[in-house]
Amino acid sequence: MRQSGAVTSDPRTDDKTVTPAVGAALRCFGDGDPLYAAYHDDEWGVPVHGEAALLERIALEGFQSGLSWITVLRKRPAFREVFEGFDPEKVAAFGPDDVERLLVDARIIRNRMKIEATVDNARAVVALHDSGRTLDELFWSFAPDAAVREHPAAFADVPGWTAESKAMSKAMKQQGFRFIGPTTAYAAMQACGLVDDHVATCPVAIERTRAIAVTQGPTT
Predict the structure, then answer these.
(1) pTM of the model
(2) Is 61 a catalytic residue?
(3) Where are the strands (E) in the chain, listed by range?
(4) Entry's SUPFAM superfamilies (predicted)?
(5) 69 is catalytic
């Protein structure tokens, strides 16, 4: 994922990538890899709702810790298969034998703590349901006011965590969730569209800004 220009940090991978020359409208990340580009264009910063979809994003952000996001994307179909589509009820029923089974499945990231955390997180979702609440309700309660946010000018302006992600992390840990520190929580907020951190010069940001302007109509 190399382009001519200055070196900056890619928020999805923590790898070093190169920004385009001034005026070039290239993606924030993902140029040069169709899978990565599609994720950037169609998913990152787009609102996600639903228990299974949110559990998946939280789990994958946890698995990504210490690795590149493209590695997780390439393994996502296998993750979805072995974790039963991230159906909370099904994953919550996983036992020690299931964990051992997953630890020898080379199609996924084989990390015991992350696998066990995913099972525990599914159980936390079920516990929320038992108390009359949902993961969707809890997760989205930490969305900042979109009206006061602007697209960052550069990746240097994209935070690693925020007051909202810190509060989310604390609240979710109190509900039994694991592997959801403030940084992972913020990455999940980006992945699920609670925040949209596409830089202002990114073609996705430009198109979304244009679409909002068209929807709102001319100002007087």
Answers:
(1) 0.86
(2) yes
(3) 7-9, 16-18
(4) DNA-glycosylase
(5) yes
- The catalytic position among 44, 69, 140, 186 is 69
pLDDT by residue for the chain (220 residues), tens only, comes to 222 222 233 455 444 343 333 334 689 999 999 999 999 999 999 999 999 999 999 999 999 999 999 999 999 999 999 999 999 999 999 999 999 999 999 999 999 999 999 999 999 999 999 999 999 999 999 999 977 788 999 988 999 999 999 999 999 999 999 999 999 999 999 999 999 999 999 999 999 888 776 766 665 5
Which of 61, 140, 164, 186 is labelled catalytic? Answer: 61
3-state secondary structure of 140: helix
Buried b (16+ CB within 10 A) or exposed e, 7-24: eeebbbbeeebbbeeeee
Catalytic one of 36, 39, 44, 186 = 39
CA 127-118-196 angle, 5° bins: 95
Tokens of 76: 């996502």
Sign for the CA dihedral angle at 63, 12, 46, 176 comes to positive
The whole-angstrom separation of Cα 165 and Cα 160 is: 9
What's the angle, vertex CA 29, arms to CA 144 and CA 191, rounded to 5? 35
Question: Residue 188: how many CA atoms within 13 Å on its side-chain side?
Answer: 31
Distance CA 74, CA 176 (A): 29
Return the structure tokens found at 161. Answer: 């965590």
Q: Which amino acid is at 180?
A: I
